[in-house]
Amino acid sequence: MPPPVDIVKVAIEWPGAFPKLMEIDQKKPLSAIIKEVCDGWSLENHEYFALQHADSSNFYITEKNRNEIKNGTILRLTTSPAQNAQQLHERIQSSSMDAKLEALKDLASLSRDVTFAQEFINLDGISLLTQMVESGTERYQKLQKIMKPCFGDMLSFTLTAFVELMDHGIVSWDTFSVAFIKKIASFVNKSAMDISILQRSLAILESMVLNSHDLYQKVAQEITIGQLIPHLQGTDQEIQTYTIAVINALFLKAPDERRQEMANILAQKQLRSIILTHVIRAQRAINNEMAHQLYVLQVLTFNLLEDRMMTKMDPQDQAQRDIIFELRRIAFDAESEPNNSSGSMEKRKSMYTRDYKKLGFINHVNPAMDFTQTPPGMLALDNMLYFAKHHQDAYIRIVLENSSREDKHECPFGRSSIELTKMLCEILKVGELPSETCNDFHPMFFTHDRSFEEFFCICIQLLNKTWKEMRATSEDFNKVIQVVREQVMRALTTKPSSLDQFKSKLQNLSYTEILKIRQSERMNQEDFQSRPILELKEKIQPEILELIKQQRLNRLVEGTCFRKLNARRRQDKFWYCRLSPNHKVLHYGDLEESPQGEVPHDSLQDKLPVADIKAVVTGKDCPHMKEKGALKQNKEVLELAFSILYDSNCQLNFIAPDKHEYCIWTDGLNALLGKDMMSDLTRNDLDTLLSMEIKLRLLDLENIQIPDAPPPIPKEPSNYDFVYDCN
Fold first, then answer.
1. Record's PROSITE patterns (predicted)?
2. Which among 243, 223, 124 has a CA at the least distance from the CA of 175?
3. What is residue 3's three-state secondary structure?
4. What pairing do the DSSP bridges indicate for beta strands 606-609 and 650-655?
5. Could you tell me which of 430, 427, 433, 439 has the C-alpha nearest to residue 658?
6. In degrees to the nearest 10, what's the CA dihedral of 501, 502, 504, 509?
7. Nearest to residue 594, comparing CAs of 569, 579, 576?
């Protein structure tokens, strides 16, 4: 007979005593269970005790999280969070340096637990830590020369505890004084500072900027880009990551009118070239967190183009009209015409109209009207002028080449530039906020100060080349744009390290090559529609689905490392989840760092029986996506979120590393629950495997026409004299 659902068998430790095996009734109050444990060891004042996990997390057991206790869990009897917080509050104020250091070390470790954090914060612990940072450090400045390691560790543990306590979101960031901000900023501004202190100071500054507008202004006054740059020139990638994170935070929270000014300062300080030299081209791999910060910087930089992208051209604005005149002048090198006679004015208008037609504008009389659509607005005109000035030979060649073709075969430079700019803005998602989970940065955009304009210049020449290869006419304009989009997207997926490499990738992706790729993909995904083939598909589809199901379950058995995210700041905290080989239990637990390879089952402290799973929900239906906050509103995060619902009001929340892992896990969990696998990945895998299986089975029928209907059954013969009896 199975044990009652509410009874959990655990082991409980107490220092100096043998561990005790006991059964916990989850229906009983936690205080009654603690009293029972204390009575077993003859300990008085049970209200001063609590239970906590005996693993590396040391998290306290509370009424809220007690349902996470599973059979076989090892617990530890320890002092209650309130008692512990009170003792540490007193110990960190000790006059003994050694005692203070040990207390701060314990505080830094315990502060990760929200239960302890709440008790310590209730004692006004945050204020005590900030006072220690503001004034306490001054007291020990004189001791630095003789006790530098001790002082460094003390400050490091103080800042670590502060970061962990603030990370729970219990205390508002708006409560901190200017003196505290100045002190934290001073740690960042010093040239020689302990790595751990610098790292935590940068993390605190990033959180201040992201979580409070008032603090953003104060931090911006204390920290300059020039003071942050030296940290990027070091060799510690973690410090470089936090430094770029602070720059991104300042960039993101800056008022619209300040962003361009900040971008100009970044350009003056040569931030791009420093990142390229010391981060991207450094002789070491770029980790996920650094890749994310580079992606955010890339997005924020391109978002500076949004203003021009959404600005319509004013046909009455002479300065804007002069840009169009300049495009015409560079292309045709017009000689100065007489300005006085009215006859010459008419002649000039006629000539302008002819030239604007050659430049490929839709509105030949008033080309300014072509730039009234947003996007791409004035950004398209900016790109055209940049191309004409910085790649003048290529610009003149394209314009004159097309103006000498027949009308129907000319590639309209003006119209093409406008559509191309709009397309590039869509590809680079100009104007969208950066995703919390994306790491998709492109090294080539860090190789030039005007990378978007150079990107455009390469692509407009590609468009002209593709137009010629397709022998396109004006009716084929949209087809050409689609081909160019495919060429650009395929080249970008290879992550070229420079614009020149991107250009050479495009050279290899000619229209002929695109046709070959399309033909190959069409053949691989060929959909046979004849009745016999459809019947064959129906027959073998269950086998293919079972194969996909087994692959999904095998991937769940291997497991995946998930990142813990919150709305306050991105963290290097991980947890791992994997399915047991018998497909009956999900093992999961926190990790200190991203694992290299699989994590063994026995190192994952928590378990969830598959039989207890009630449902799997995704996107907006997930409990952790219903909370408010910037992160929760992020579309890409919503698309990667899923939750396992079990027991009563219990859930296990996930944010997948990418779309592929999301599909693997949602498919695998649905398969475990006996439901259909509905992901895009399953549909693609099913189509691919079905196509391959059908082609394999039809190999012997190559070049044979398969009829739509089976051949008629012949009439019975008039006699069976031809039958030979083997007996």
1. ELMO (PS51335)
2. 124
3. coil
4. unpaired
5. 439
6. 150
7. 576
